[in-house]
UniProtKB/TrEMBL annotation:
Residues 510-564 are annotated as: Disordered. Residues 23-317 form the tRNA synthetases class I catalytic domain. Signal peptide: none annotated. Belongs to the class-I aminoacyl-tRNA synthetase family. The keyword Zinc applies. It comes from Solanum stoloniferum. This is cysteine--tRNA ligase. It holds the Pfam family tRNA-synt_1e.
Length: 564
C-alpha cells in the first residue's frame, strides 16, 4: 500500500472526460467487468481487456482500497448453442470447458482472480426477478413467451454512447423481430426452442437475453449502485447502453459512477475481426511467446488507445521482458555472493549511493503519478523502469571489478534497494512471475527455440561448429553461423575471459519473421467481431505508443572488430 495520498483520475466514458476517482464508500471499491461468452478459446482482444482491468484492480489494491471485483461468464447464448450443435456437444459441457480454458489463459497472463466469477446458468432466479420488476414498472412487454424491453419507456436511452434512438442497430446478435413495438427493443427473455437449453419462468420456458444477465448479476453482488463498470469499447453500444436502461427500469436508484472502456486491437494495422480472418487466440500467441511478453506488449500502450499487434512488436516486448528477468537474476546471484558483505555494510558505513536513491525515488513517484493519471503505463515501462535496470547493471559491473571495499558495499546496498523497488513495481504491473527468474528465462528460451524450429542440441552444435571455425581462423564461416542464428532469433554471446559461448533469444530479422504467430483462426471466434467505435462517441486521444529500441547489431568474429 502506498503511504502518500494519490489523486487517482480515470476516464469516464459517460462524461467523456477524466475525473478524480471518489468511491461511493470510503476505502472500498465495487467494480464489474463484462466477461467472455465461453464457446471458444479467448483471443488477444480479450487479453487486452482483462489485462487492462487487472491492472486497475491491482492498482486500486495498491492504493489501499478494499476491492470487490466481479467478472461474469456468459455460459448460455446463441453462439454457444450453435457451436455445440456444430461439434455435437452438450452446450453446458462446451461452455464449462471453455470457461476453464479462459481461466488458464488469465492465469498465464498474471491476471488476478476476481472476487466473484458468476455464470448466467447459476443466476436464473436473479435474472427472472429483475425482468419481473422491469415488467411491473411498465418498461417491458411479452409476445408469445418472449419478453422485450421497451426503449421508448426510457427517455435517457443513448446517453452513454451518444447515439440517437434512430441510429440504433436493431438485431445486434439476433435477427430483427417484426413483432416488436420498436425495432430497437431488445430481448430480456427468449422463449424456448426445440433442442435448446431452457428454464421455467412466469412467461413460459426459455432463457435470458444477452444484456439482462450483467444487470442482474452486478446488482446481486454489488447492489444497484456501485463504482466502476468496465469492458471493451465495442460493448459501449448496445450492451452497456441496454444495461443502463434495464437496470434503471428495475431500480430507479441504479447508478454507476464510472464507465471505463478499453480500446480495440488491430492486427498489422487492420481491425481485428472474424470476417477478415486475422484474429489470434491467446493460446496461439503464448505457444510461441511467453505470456509475460504479451502482457508487457499490452501494457506498453495506454489502455484506451488502439493497439497494433504485429510480430515485430511482440518480439521486441519479448526481448524487453527477457532483459528485465536477466537483470533480476544477475542481481540476485551477485547479491547472494555478497550477502555477508551486505550485512556488514548495514552495520558499518556502507550506504545507498545518491544516484541509486534518486533513481528509486523517481521510479516510485513515476509509478504513482503515471498510474494515477488514468493508468498511463507506457512512460513507466519506457523511462523510469529502464533507468532503474540500467543502474542495476552498473552496480553489477562494479561488483564484478576489483574495487575498494567501500565501493563494493555501496554498490551491493544500492543494488539490494533497486532490486526491491523494481520488483515492487513489476508486482503492481502484474509482470512479476511466481516462478524463479531462472525458470522464467528458461521458458523464454524454450519458446525462442520453438519459433526458430530448432532444438537446444541444434544450437549447441552450431556453437561448436562456430568455435571450430574460429580456431581455424575461418571468420567468414563463424560470422555466418552467428548471423544465421540471429536471423532465427538466437543470439550468441562469447563470455569474457573464457572460451565459452552462451545463447539467448533476440529479435529476429524482418525477413525471417512470419506473418503471424500461427495460422489465422477461421473457425468460430471467441467473441463477436469488434465493430468500429460509435460515430457520435468522443474518442479518447491516443496515449504515446511504446518506444521500440533498435535491435543490437550482430557481433562479427573478424579480429579487426572489437568484441561487444
Amino acid at each position: 500500500m502506498a503511504n502518500e495520498k494519490v489523486e487517482f483520475q480515470v476516464y469516464n466514458s459517460m462524461t467523456r472526460q477524466k475525473e478524480v476517482f471518489i468511491p461511493k464508500e470510503p476505502g472500498k471499491v465495487k467494480m464489474y467487468v463484462c466477461g467472455v461468452t465461453s464457446y471458444d478459446y479467448s483471443h488477444i482482444g480479450h487479453a487486452r481487456a482483462y489485462v487492462a482491468f487487472d491492472l486497475l484492480y491491482r492498482y486500486l489494491k495498491y492504493l489501499g482500497y478494499e476491492v470487490v471485483y466481479v467478472r461474469n461468464f456468459t455460459d448460455v447464448d446463441d453462439k454457444i448453442i450453435r457451436r455445440a450443435n456444430e461439434l455435437g456437444e452438450d452446450p453446458t459441457a462446451l461452455s464449462g470447458r471453455y470457461c476453464q480454458e479462459f481461466l488458464k489463459d488469465m492465469d498465464d497472463l498474471q491476471c488476478l482472480q476476481p472476487t466473484h466469477q458468476p455464470r448466467v446458468t447459476e443466476h436464473m432466479e436473479q435474472i427472472k426477478e429483475m425482468i419481473a420488476k422491469i415488467m411491473a414498472n411498465g418498461c417491458a412487454y411479452t409476445i408469445n413467451g418472449d419478453v422485450y424491453f421497451s426503449v421508448d419507456s426510457f427517455p435517457e436511452y443513448g446517453r452513454l454512447s451518444g447515439r440517437k434512438l434512430e441510429d440504433n442497430r436493431a438485431g445486434e446478435r439476433v435477427e430483427v423481430d417484426s413483432r416488436k413495438k420498436n425495432p430497437a427493443d431488445f430481448a430480456l427473455w427468449k422463449s424456448a426452442k426445440p433442442g435448446e437449453p431452457s428454464w421455467e419462468s412466469p412467461w413460459g420456458p426459455g432463457r435470458p437475453g444477452w444484456h439482462i444477465e450483467c444487470s442482474a448479476m452486478s446488482a446481486h453482488y454489488l447492489t444497484h449502485s456501485f463504482d466502476i463498470h468496465g469492458g471493451g469499447m465495442d460493448l459501449t453500444f448496445p450492451h452497456h447502453e441496454n444495461e443502463i436502461a434495464q437496470s434503471c427500469a428495475a431500480c430507479r436508484e441504479s447508478n454507476i459512477s464510472y464507465w471505463m472502456h478499453n480500446g480495440f486491437v488491430n492486427i498489422d494495422d487492420e481491425k481485428m475481426s472474424k470476417s477478415l480472418g486475422n484474429f489470434f487466440t491467446i493460446r496461439e500467441v503464448t505457444r510461441l511467446y511467453h505470456p509475460l511478453a504479451l502482457r508487457y506488449f499490452l501494457l506498453g500502450n495506454h489502455y484506451r488507445s488502439p493497439v497494433n499487434y504485429s510480430i515485430s512488436q511482440i518480439e521486441i516486448a519479448s526481448e524487453s521482458v527477457f532483459y528485465i528477468y536477466q537483470t533480476l537474476l544477475d542481481s540476485e546471484e551477485a547479491l547472494s555472493a555478497f550477502q555477508q558483505g551486505t550485512e556488514t555494510a548495514k552495520n558499518a558505513k556502507g550506504r545507498v549511493t545518491p544516484q541509486a536513491q534518486e533513481c528509486i525515488n523517481k521510479l516510485r513517484n513515476e509509478l504513482k503519478t503515471k498510474l494515477s493519471d488514468d493508468l498511463h503505463t507506457p512512460t513507466i515501462l519506457n523511462a523510469a523502469l529502464q533507468e532503474a535496470l540500467k543502474l542495476m547493471n552498473s552496480c553489477l559491473t562494479i561488483l564484478k571489478k576489483k574495487q575498494q571495499k567501500q565501493q563494493h558495499l555501496s554498490a551491493s546496498l544500492s543494488l539490494t534497494e533497486l532490486l526491491k523497488e523494481v520488483k515492487a513495481v513489476l508486482d503492481v504491473l502484474g509482470l512479476l512471475a511466481g516462478s524463479t527468474c531462472a525458470e522464467v528465462l528458461q521458458q523464454f528460451k524454450e519458446r525462442a527455440l520453438k519459433r526458430a524450429e530448432l532444438t537446444e542440441e541444434d544450437v549447441l552444435h552450431a556453437i561448436e561448429e562456430r568455435a571450430l571455425a574460429r580456431k581455424n581462423k575461418d571468420f567468414a564461416r563463424s560470422d555466418q553461423i552467428r548471423t544465421d542464428l540471429a536471423a532465427k532469433g538466437i543470439s550468441l554471446m562469447d563470455i569474457t575471459g573464457t572460451t565459452e559461448t552462451a545463447w539467448r533469444p533476440c529479435v529476429r530479422s524482418i525477413q525471417e519473421q512470419p506473418a503471424s504467430p500461427a495460422q489465422p483462426k477461421k473457425s468460430a471466434a471467441a467473441v463477436q467481431e469488434q465493430p468500429v467505435a460509435p460515430s457520435r462517441q468522443k474518442q479518447p486521444s491516443a496515449a504515446p505508443q511504446q518506444e521500440q529500441p533498435a535491435a543490437a547489431p550482430a557481433q562479427q568474429d573478424h579480429p579487426t572488430v572489437p568484441p561487444q
